[in-house]
Amino acid sequence: MMLLTQDHRKRLVANGQNRGDHVPVVKFFNPVGAATWLLSELDSDGDTLFGLADLGFGCAELGSVSLSEIASLTLPFGLSIERDLHFEARFPLTVYADAARLVGRITEDEARLEAAALAQAHE
């Protein structure tokens, strides 16, 4: 599977050129493990992504990852990292990060995300 479409690349690069708290553009996941990435920016090098990474250890972190390294991962049964074809972000990346800190993993639970967004609004 192609991890990024041309549209994804275009949106990620635009976000990377305009730093801010962007809505994640794409979600990658390990189909046989717990790793998940929500990514919102791509540097001009075409490889360095920024977003929220959760490797399944209970502590999701904001930071940079290499697209080529993620794409090169070899998983059991001949599988590879996949893109969630149905992912549609509704909140800025920091809301997902705050909710992940509370839950211990990246979550798409609407109630938890809305609570994190509300908490941010009151800061």
Plain-language structure description:
With 123 residues, the protein is of the alpha+beta class. The protein has a domain of 83 residues. Helix content is 33%, strand content 21%. It is built from 4 helices and 5 strands; from the N terminus they run αββββαβαα. It has a 5-stranded antiparallel sheet. A hairpin with a 6-residue loop joins β1 and β2. α3 crosses α4. The model has no long low-confidence stretch (mean pLDDT 95).
Q: What proportion strand?
A: 15-25%
| Rg result | 14 Å
Shape: globular
Helix and strand composition category: alpha+beta
Biggest beta sheet summary: 5 strands, antiparallel
**Kindly state the mean pLDDT as a whole number?**
95
Work out the helix count: 4
Approximately how much helix is present in the residues? 25-40%
End-to-end C-alpha gap: 41 Å
Strand order of the largest sheet: 4-3-2-1-5
* Count of extended strands: 5
Oligomeric category: single chain
The parts where pLDDT drops under 50 for at least 5 residues are none
Could you give the order of the helices and strands? HEEEEHEHH
Protein name: DUF2958 domain-containing protein
Organism: Pontixanthobacter rizhaonensis
What is the gist of this entry?
The protein is an alpha+beta fold and 123 residues long. The chain is built from four helices and five strands. It has a domain of 83 residues.
Describe the secondary-structure layout.
Blueprint: H1 6-17, E1 26-29, E2 36-42, E3 48-54, E4 61-66, H2 67-72, E5 82-83, H3 93-103, H4 110-121
Antiparallel strand pairs: 1-2, 1-5, 2-3, 3-4
Helix pairs in contact: 3-4
